[in-house]
ATP-binding cassette domain-containing protein (Ohtaekwangia kribbensis), 221 residues
Amino acid sequence: MTQSPATNTSSIATQSLTIHVENLGKRFNREWIFRGLNYSFDPGNIYAITGANGSGKSTLLQVLWGQMPPSKGTLRYTHGGTEIHPETIFNHIAIATPYMDLIEEFTLEEQLEFHFKLKRSRNHLSIAEMIERMYLTPARHKYISNFSSGMRQRVKLALAFFTEADLVFLDEPGTNLDHQAFDWYLKELNALPKHCTVIVASNQPQEYPSTAQKIDIMMYK
Ligand SMILES: Nc1ncnc2c1ncn2[C@@H]1O[C@H](COP(=O)(O)OP(=O)(O)OP(=O)(O)O)[C@@H](O)[C@H]1O
């Protein structure tokens, strides 16, 4: 899937966004991946969805951002206290996942230009400023098809970090990052505005701060 939002976001004001989850469950065929989840994901917090490989972290993330319908329970979003329609949630979110594709035929600069024609950049960052902040200036005209796995991951994370969004979903954010890139990831995570709600799916404790609120998916089997 290409990270290509369908909706123009120019009229979306940045406010606090809460996800309200009641008795949420998801199953594939007869197997419950999780159920009975009651939670409120509040602005300004970092949440860590933890659990072993295959336990359901990515599935929960996809249900929370509205890509996958739940099998049970309800999911509501409120924005600055006002209920918002689930179909418009894409206007408020930024996502970085390992299974989200970049556009191979684009150069780095073209990939960013494409994305930010559709989404607003945080703090009106220019494309050149973003590339500099990603430490990828020498690769600005390089095709994505020639990027290493670590460079691709840095681009995916940058698209999420540099998009103006109230909710940021990061699935296994440290994938393929070397030490230097990992430090960059933690720096950008900390630089997100305080009103943002950040949800990280990971079984690597170094990928989220120790102060993150943890949700162990195994508790909801
Ligand atoms: N579309 C699908 N149809 C059927 N089963 C699925 C589907 N998507 C995921 N699953 C199953 O749901 C379970 C949870 O998968 P998920 O990818 O959410 O786990 P995860 O905790 O993110 O794993 P990992 O740490 O390996 O990324 C797995 O058993 C997986 O096979």
Notes: Residues 149-161 form the longest helix (13 residues). Residues 28, 33, 51, 53-59, 203 surround adenosine-5'-triphosphate (CB under 6 Å). The domain at 17-220 is CATH 3.40.50.300 (Rossmann fold). The mean pLDDT is 92.
